[in-house]
């Protein structure tokens, strides 16, 4: 029997952190997980173990690790692609220095999870089934910071044996939490707006296809890569990960069909691309994630229809009053 891990999560209030923290508490017990973030969590999760932490505060990070006998860190804090462009230097600082603070602490023997992203790829890769080892020419400071972070992870693994594992998340869609500051955020907003107002104006072009994943699949992939025997982790930079690939028009049609099937008013969608369209246009349409499938058994479960149906199962089947 393996010992219960002692886990610290940075960015625990974020889109993925909120859901991952709950999944880890479920798997290992509430006492095993310490959530941290730069701001306090909503009152609903205040009952869970939580403390404030700025990932740029390396001494406090080390103190928390020692105090709570942490052996595993899920380092989710980051400034994402769209928001990151407003302040490139701060984005670099949070995303790279924050990671280095975690990796330095991990030299004492911690296991680390580092989320990377499709944003590490730029426009000069094959856009369909982009391979893991395609050239990295990111178009955003977020992508630059994550591409650099991947290499730092491999470096700490090679040089000091840090057991750090990483996934390149595509756009993540879930009912449990709201995204913030990303280019793929439209794929969550569209559900909330369709329900609340019956319409949504998308900030990407109707035909801008991107790799995506349902939250349940993303969380399961994270738990699976962290649980895999170290010998199965052949890539210490990061693994491509994909659940599905679609464009705004595809999910719009799937939402309309699902709402019609449920006897709800069919929403209307329109498209008004803003600066995020150029970011999306520089990213792959789909990823080749065969290394993840081969090395540690990755297998997505949610296609577009299942994803849309599950979102509506959880977001509610009646249109709430808009305020
Ligand atoms: N979801 C992220 C973003 O849009 C991509 O990793 O920035």
Primary descriptors:
single chain; 323 residues; alpha/beta; Rossmann fold; seven-stranded parallel sheet; three-stranded mixed sheet; 12 helices; binds serine
Helices and strands in order:
Layout: E1 7-10, H1 15-28, E2 33-37, H2 43-46, E3 50-52, H3 58-67, E4 72-75, H4 81-84, H5 88-106, E5 111-117, H6 141-160, E6 163-169, E7 171-173, H7 186-197, E8 199-202, E9 210-214, H8 215-227, E10 239-240, E11 244-246, H9 248-261, E12 268-271, H10 275-281, H11 290-296, H12 304-315
Parallel strand pairs: 1-2, 1-4, 2-3, 4-5, 5-6, 6-10, 7-9, 8-12
Antiparallel strand pairs: 9-11
Helix pairs in contact: 1-8, 3-5, 5-6, 7-9, 9-12
Bound molecules: serine.
Give a description of the structure.
Helix content is 42%, strand content 16%. The chain has 323 residues and is α/β, with parallel strands linked by helices. The chain has a domain at 7-175 and 213-242 and 286-300: NAD(P)-binding Rossmann-like Domain (Rossmann fold, 3-Layer(aba) Sandwich). Strands 3-2-1-4-5-6-10 form a seven-stranded parallel sheet, sandwiched between helices. Mean pLDDT is 95; it is low at 317-323. It binds serine. The site of serine has 10 residues, from loops.
Shape: globular
CATH class of the domain at 7-175 and 213-242 and 286-300: Alpha Beta
Low-confidence stretches: 317-323
What is the topology, as strand order, of the major beta sheet?
A: 3-2-1-4-5-6-10
Biggest β-sheet strands, sense, barrel: 7 strands, parallel
What is the CATH topology assignment of the domain at 7-175 and 213-242 and 286-300? Rossmann fold
